[in-house]
Design brief:
Layout lengths: L3 H16 L7 H9 L20 E4 L2 E3 L2 H10 L7 E5 L5 H7 L4 E6 L2 H13 L4 E5 L5 E4 L4 E5 L14 E4 L8 H6 L5 E4 L5
Parallel strand pairs: 3-4, 3-8, 4-7, 5-7, 8-9
Antiparallel strand pairs: 1-2, 5-6
Length: 198
């Protein structure tokens, strides 16, 4: 078992060798990447590889993104502390936790039930979770845990009640365009996603 001190050292080394060395310069992003323990968001059997320069499988044919990709997307969003971000595809919850260090509010949507359970547990342990549960066509119930607002199992249907967000981030490559999410966003919204989305 790897100790917390060893993980902290690996996290620091990851920032130096994978992020700074590749040109990530946003100090808030670098601080967030130094702060959020990636090992808490990967399966226990893969924690020893948490800070390797690669994505790792998290189940359901999904991966936790490579640390550099997470940092690059955060920097590309040009975030400010008052921003509100919609993350499409919570996955492990790692990117939402990093975003939670950078902005006022993060809304994260996930449609895969097993990912919902896993990400909810990880985010709740970090005390950065507000669970939003759909109760009707336009009604939601909320439980407060912090800066990240987690919306389980409604990602495919959209979230029309939240039109005030200004930044969107998607770490996956969905087969269709995120046009619905962009239509729901305010007119000055920015969407950052990996290839295959537009």
């Amino acid at each position: 078992m790897v100790s917390a001190d060893v993980f902290a050292e690996q996290r620091h080394r990851m920032v130096e060798t994978q992020l700074l060395a590749r040109g990530i310069r946003d100090q808030a992003v670098l601080t967030a990447m130094r702060t959020v323990p990636r090992e808490a968001f990967v399966p226990p059997e893969l924690r020893a590889w948490a800070y390797e320069d690669m994505p790792l499988p998290i189940g359901d044919r999904q991966t936790i993104s490579q640390p550099y990709i997470v940092a690059w997307m955060m920097e590309a969003l040009q975030l400010s502390p008052d921003d509100r971000v919609l993350e499409i595809g919570t996955g492990s919850g790692y990117a939402a936790a990093v975003l939670g260090c950078l902005v006022k509010t993060v809304y994260t949507v996930e449609r895969l039930e097993t990912r919902v359970r896993h990400a909810g547990q990880c985010l709740q342990r970090r005390q950065q979770l507000l669970r939003v549960t759909r109760e009707g066509e336009t009604t939601f119930r909320q439980e407060a845990f912090g800066v990240v607002r987690f919306v389980p199992l409604i990602g495919a249907q959209g979230w029309p009640a939240r039109k005030h967000r200004r930044r969107e981030q998607g770490a996956s490559s969905p087969p269709r365009s995120p046009a619905r999410a962009l239509r729901e966003a305010s007119c000055d919204a920015t969407h950052i996603a990996t290839s295959g989305c537009v």
